[in-house]
Amino acid sequence: MASGLLILALAMLSAIVIPRTFAVVPGRIQLVLEMLSEYVLGQLESAFGSKAQAKRFFPMLFTLLLFLVVANQLTAVPLIGQITLGEKSLFRLTTSDLNETFALALLMVGVSHVLAFKISPLGHIGNFIRIKPLLSARSVGQLASAMLGFALGLLDIVGELAKVLSLSFRIFGNIFAGEVMVVVIASISAYTYYIVPIPFIFLSLFSGFVQAFVFFMLSLQFIAATVRSQQEPESEGHSRKEDAEQYNPTISLNVATVPVTEMEGVRRH
Amino acid sequence: MESEGLKIIAAGLCMGLGAIGPALGEGFIGAKAMEAIGRNPSQADAIMPRMIVAMAITESTGIYALVISLIILFVV
User: CA dihedral defined by A187, B24, A205, A175, rounded to 10 degrees?
Assistant: First the structure.
């Protein structure tokens, strides 16, 4: 529990101290931070499809990634597990507690739904309770497919709950299993107490990085998918208009270029 | 047999059988990703994160097995 507060304190401290060292010619810390943030921004851009959206969600998701990366590596700090309060380790890994990961997963999936609901309330509810095709069905076949769609929409609600569960259990299971594995290996016998657990500690550190990245990627995908599913109709119509305006020039270009490439292909073969 | 012993056997079976599927799946994903990188090494940076995410999703059934066996051991 205290480890979460410790990480928050570290984050605030570094947020105050590190920007003072920023300069036009980047130092070491600045270089790493710039690389990381540029990479994350690129990921966000490819997921959301627009730079403005990516910049809008960047603070939240980048904070999530940094928090998880630091939180999963806290066991790498020597002797920090020995600090106890009433026989309980004060600085145990936050992500090896289901409460913390469940809260994070709930927050991320909740954010995705709130945003989609804010963009178009009826459209978002209509994704799950699909009444519209039921009402507009004209024949028996249409009615049957509409009823199937309605049932699938209800199943999607369960799917949303499963998202929260799988997201939270995935990171919890990995980190917790890493901890348990090290303890089990160390307690098999006196011979395996000292050097043998080292590869397993490395493995759990590595899986800490990977799981932080995976949690970030999956919550990004969830948010991007729900936000885009509500925005798509408007932007698609818009782009179709633009396409229609530019349609003729491109097709004439295609007609002009296709025979040349075909002839080249024939020659090469 | 005592219920305590049954619990331990059930948890072990649950974890062991539940680990088969994700292990096969992750193996397939890893093999295919290696194939793709071998075919087009310049795309390695684009393939790696996707491979890791796909692996994490495949892994989730194994995690469910872990959760169930933890529940059998400590809750039920």
Answer: -70
CATH number of B3-71: 1.20.20.10
* Total beta-carbon pairs less than 8 A apart between chain A and chain B: 35
Q: Please tell me the distance from the alpha carbon of residue B15 to that of residue A264, in angstroms, as a whole number.
A: 59
Can you say how many angstroms the Cα of residue A231 is from the centroid of all Cα atoms in its chain?
19
First to last CA, chain A: 68
Residue A170 near residue A108 (C-beta atoms within 8 A): no
- The pLDDT score that the predictor gives to residue B13 is 94
**Cα distances (angstroms) measured from residue B17 to each of A83, A174, B20, B67:** 38, 18, 6, 13
In a mutagenesis test of the B interface, which of A36, A214, A215, A219 is the best target, namely the one with the most B β-carbons within 10 Å? A214
Summarize pLDDT for A190-225 with one digit per residue, the tens: 888 888 888 888 888 888 888 898 899 889 988 888
Who has greater pLDDT, A150 or A231? Answer: A150
- Rounded to two decimals, what is the model's pTM? 0.77
Chain A residues whose beta carbon lies within 8 Å of the beta carbon of residue B63: 166, 169-170, 173-174
Q: Kindly list the domain boundaries of chain B, sorted by start residue.
A: 3-71
Report yes or no: A186 and A197 within 8 Å, Cβ to Cβ: yes
Token pair listed for A115: 């945003």
Distances in whole angstroms, Cα of residue A8 to Cα of each of A4, A64, A67, A252, B54: 6, 12, 8, 59, 30
Question: pLDDT, tens digit, for every residue of B10-27?
Answer: 999 999 999 999 999 999
Alpha-carbon distance values, A180 to A98, A155, A206 (Å): 15, 35, 15
Chain A environment of B50 (Cβ under 8 Å): none
Q: Does B46 touch chain A (CB under 8 A)?
A: no
